[in-house]
Specification:
single chain; alpha+beta; 11 helices; 3 domains; five-stranded mixed sheet; six-stranded antiparallel sheet; globular; 27 strands
């Protein structure tokens, strides 16, 4: 099915002359395509909100005309050539969310023109002191650059990024961001942290994070990786950044950077950096792992980072694993209590270490299980846990989702319909027994194993140090 692009759908919503000729074709397509109907609905809602805000602003103008008052930075900006209200200054993440959801509309439609004029108008008088702090960053795939904005919508600076559209596609696939804002020095002024290439060499290496100040100057860069000895083998410095996140320093309250890096296979290293890019420590693991931004609070309130991936300690029997790390304990260089071998002390950052079972169905199909990156999950009573997707077939036929509480115990195991179909087929052959939901999924949940620092345990337990 051929879909109209988003710019054409925007013109259709606006009743533009350019959309008259293909209107019947678009309407016929909308009757069949739920995805395009959703775009039309959201664009229509956006312009309806815009009209409503404009109407409200006109009422405000009438009131202000009868009661003159000093206009603050929060008021609406006007186009300098006329007295017509155009657009309230974007705040928070609303503009970024709309641009990411509607990139074609944002770049090619009326919305881009309106916002462009609003930003231009807002910068005529120059940024005030409070407008020099970066509070929002937009990744502009069409002009291949990142753009930093103040709280009032003033564009402070831009930096070109080669192949930005490719990296944004990777962000969407990974459900993570390669650009974040943090106050690394604790002075109230934010830095922009970008895990993006700034030249052709970095495109190939993918091993550098850049940190920019509010004035656009690069404060420092972090290049991860080093030659690593594991048992009797030297692994060269061929590490690539997997993901990074920002955490709070337990002592100063300032922001810190935690970076996960992998080579092409093993090992993996999680680095912790403080202000000015000073390395505070590392956690080393033999086997590839991916990282989720810390949103899981331990029983004592500590934020934990969740890693998912494989352990290669026994290279003939790799296993899927889930790790809970306390970033504040990544102090000095340390190694995993299970997947160690780097001749380093065991890292006290390792709080949980879980082995995910090779299920009976997966064993019968001779398919190893693989884990996607963990994602936050909202549990009953407002508790934030996390979920991990498990795929045990290259074709994706066997799919399960483990939902964990913050203490890394399993709340529930869900599955896709294809998984039950495979189970039913194997049951007819006499390979597996029992009922799918009441027996198989409950058994899968109970087959998780927790490493206590010395041995595997069937009951949830912390790593003992």
């Amino acid at each position: 099915m051929e879909h109209p692009d988003e710019h054409t759908l925007e013109l259709y919503v606006l009743g533009a002359r350019e959309a008259e000729a293909p209107r019947k074709k678009i309407e016929a397509h909308l009757r069949l395509c739920a995805g395009c109907r959703d775009i039309v609905d959201r664009v229509s809602a956006f312009y309806a909100d815009l009209s409503a805000e404009a109407g409200h602003a006109e009422e405000t103008r009438a009131v202000e005309a009868s009661h003159p008052a000093r206009r603050g930075a929060a008021d609406n900006f006007r186009y300098p050539a006329s007295d017509a209200l155009l657009w309230p200054v974007p705040r928070g993440g609303a503009l970024r969310r709309f641009i990411r959801a509607h990139p074609v509309v944002s770049a090619g439609g009326g919305f881009a023109a309106v916002c462009g004029l609003a930003f231009a108008a807002s910068t005529l008088t120059g940024p005030t002191a409070r407008e020099t702090n970066v509070t929002q960053v937009i990744e502009n795939r069409y002009e291949s650059r990142i753009e930093a904005y103040s709280a009032t919508g003033v564009r402070l600076w831009t930096i070109p990024v080669p192949h930005l559209a490719t990296y944004m596609a990777a962000e969407d696939a990974l459900q993570s961001s390669f650009v974040q804002i943090a106050d690394l020095e604790g002075d109230g002024m934010n830095e922009v942290i970008a895990n993006l290439p700034m030249d052709a060499e970095e495109v190939a290496a993918k091993n550098t994070i850049h940190v920019f100040g509010a004035d656009r100057r690069e404060k420092f860069a972090i290049r991860v990786g080093e030659a690593v000895r594991y048992r009797d083998r030297i692994y060269p410095d061929e590490f690539c950044i997997n993901e990074f996140c920002v955490v709070k320093s337990p002592s100063s309250g300032a922001d810190e950077i935690v970076v996960a890096a992998n080579d092409s296979h093993s090992p993996s290293i999680v680095y912790r950096y403080g202000a000015h890019g000073k390395k505070l420590g590392s956690y080393r693991h033999f086997g590839q792992v991916r990282m989720m931004t810390p949103q899981i609070a331990a029983a004592d309130g500590r934020p934990l980072i969740v890693l998912t991936g494989l352990t290669d300690r026994d290279e003939s029997r790799t296993a899927a694993i889930i790790v809970g790390l306390d970033p504040s304990q990544i102090v000095g260089d340390g190694e995993s209590s299970f997947s160690g071998g780097f001749n380093l002390p065991v890292s006290r950052a390792e709080v949980f270490y879980i082995r995910v079972p090779q299920t009976a169905v997966a064993k019968e199909l001779r398919e190893p299980v693989a884990l996607a990156a963990a994602r936050p999950a909202r549990l009953p009573k407002g508790i934030i846990g996390f979920s991990v997707n498990v795929v045990s077939s290259a074709a994706g036929a066997l799919y399960m989702e483990y939902i964990f509480r913050p203490d890394f115990t399993v709340l529930e195991v869900k599955s896709g319909n294809a998984t039950q179909a495979v189970f039913d087929t194997l049951k007819q052959r006499g390979v597996v027994t029992g009922r799918f939901y009441d027996d198989y999924l409950k058994t899968v949940a109970g087959e998780l194993r927790y490493w206590d620092g010395t041995a595997w345990q069937a009951s949830p337990v912390d790593v003992r140090h």
